[in-house]
Design brief:
By secondary structure, the chain is mostly helical. 57% of the residues lie in helices and 9% in strands. The chain contains four helices and two strands; from the N terminus they run H-H-H-E-E-H. The protein has helices at residues 3-22, 30-42, 51-66, 96-113, and strands spanning 72-77, 83-87. The chain has a two-stranded antiparallel ribbon with strand order 1-2. Helix 1 (3-22) packs across helix 4 (96-113) and helix 2 packs across helix 3 (51-66). The longest helix is centred in the first third of the chain and has 20 residues, at 3-22. The chain is globular and about 45 Å long.
Length: 118
């Protein structure tokens, strides 16, 4: 099975699992899944977030997802428990499709590590 086919199958399985758990029958999109990862990484799952906090949650998720690729490095948790990362290497310029594939691959790897999918 090609790498692209395997990624596509794992992505679809993951979207199905997460959509069934967190959505009312609608498939979650990439941004929604990134947001869920941010909430998971923060560890404060049972609270409402303001708009700016939601953006920060997505930033946390992106940093965490791209950390294994060498783009970010975890630094510390602040006094409110929010994780902070520093840029290790700037992301190369990517076309929209390439960016989407990179994020889907990173998300699939994140959930493989947590044994949500195989």
């Amino acid at each position: 099975m090609s790498r692209d086919t395997q990624l596509k199958e794992r992505w679809e399985k993951l979207v199905d699992i997460l959509s069934n758990q967190f959505s009312q029958g609608e498939d979650l999109d990439l941004d929604a899944i990134i947001y869920l990862i941010g909430v998971q990484e923060l560890g404060k799952v049972h609270r409402e977030f303001k708009k700016d906090e939601k953006l920060n949650l997505m930033h946390i998720a992106i940093c965490r997802l791209l950390e294994p690729y060498g783009f970010y490095e975890f630094e510390y948790f602040d006094e409110d428990g929010w994780p902070h990362y520093r840029v290790k290497e700037e992301l190369p310029p990517l076309k929209a499709g390439e960016q989407s594939v990179l994020m889907k691959e990173a998300i699939v790897n994140y959930f493989l590590e947590r044994e949500v999918i195989d």
